[in-house]
Amino acid sequence: NILEQAVAVRKLSAFVPDKISLCSMLSGIGLNLSPGLVSKYERLLALPDEVQAAVGRGVITLAAALSIGDIGEGIDALSVRMVCGLLERLRPGTNRQKELLSHLKEISVRKGIPISSVLESPDVSRVLNSREKDRKVLLHHLQNALRKFRFPSLCAMEEHVAKYLSRLELPPDFRFVFPEGFEDTRYRFIMEINSPADMAKHAKLMHKLSSHPAVSEIFNRELRD
After folding, report:
1. Under DSSP, is residue 174 helix (H, G, I), strand (E, B) or coil?
2. Can you tell me the distance from the alpha carbon of 152 to that of 147, in angstroms, rounded to the nearest whole number?
3. At 135, phi and psi to the nearest 5?
4. Each residue's pLDDT tens digit, 73-100
5. Residue 100 in 3-state DSSP?
6. What are the Cα distances from residue 147, in Å, to 15, 32, 142?
């Protein structure tokens, strides 16, 4: 496994410190590694033992482990243990692992609290202590909880707009899209059209929506500001 490869590289590098020569020798014993990967293995072996062990078991990917390393001295032993336990429980893919770690790191830095405190916060711990057994569903809820922790105002605005959008009762072929992050004042309508009759139907709907009270709430600038 990756951890065993990393240990082998470390032992052999004591005799062949030049990475290019080392990689050439490693290829002779079936390890086709690049100098860049050798450097990543060196970083892996500098991480806490719990992280290394999790990589060895295939619980944490190398990329995610290095992301933990990038957090640096800001991550304490309890946080490392909790993160490893969380990833072992949920078993997310590489991208999801990095996304989770990124959220945890950003919240930790922004709030000035350790990652363990982020995971013990009320909304996050409520998700982790729920009776949900489906890992994918649990992961989805966890990501939403972390996103709300990281971007409380943005998430509140999204929920507000979604509430009023649901009152419009739009047909499946007609979508009202709000700007990402609400950084723009312009919204978009996406209409699927198969015939001139569809155009007439959507035009009639647009006219009806223009006077709908829910639309006025959606365009309320005071809510965004």
Report:
1. strand
2. 8
3. -65, -40
4. 557 888 888 998 999 888 888 888 888 9
5. helix
6. 47, 39, 9
In sequence order, the 6+-apart residues with CB closer than 8 A to the CB of 133 are none
The number of angstroms, rounded, from the C-alpha of 138 to the middle of its chain's C-alpha atoms is: 14
The closest alpha carbon to 144, from 164, 121, 123, 115, belongs to 123
Angle made by CA atoms 48, 5, 63, in degrees to the nearest 5:
55
Residue 187 token pair: 């919204």
Q: What's the first-to-final CA gap in the chain, in angstroms?
A: 52
Q: What is the rounded CA–CA span in Å between residue 83 and residue 92?
A: 12
Q: Percent helix, strand, coil in the chain (nearest 5)?
A: 70, 5, 25
- The amino acid present at 18, given as its one-letter code, is D
* 43 CB-contact burial (10 Å; exposed 0-12 / middle 13-18 / buried 19+): middle
Model pLDDT for residues 9-42, shown as the tens digit of each residue? 999 888 888 889 999 888 888 888 999 999 999 9
φ, ψ of residue 176 in degrees (nearest 5): -110, 115
3-state secondary structure 58-115: CCCCHHHHHHHHHHHHHCCHHHHHHHHHHHHHHCCCHHHHHHHHHHHHHHHHHHCCCH
CB–CB of 124/145 below 8 Å? yes
User: What does the block give as tokens for 196?
Assistant: 């001139």
Candidates 64, 136, 49, 52; CA nearest to 105 is: 64
Sign of the torsion angle spanned by Cα atoms 170, 175, 178, 181 = positive
Nearest alpha carbon to residue 143 among 177, 115, 104, 181: 104
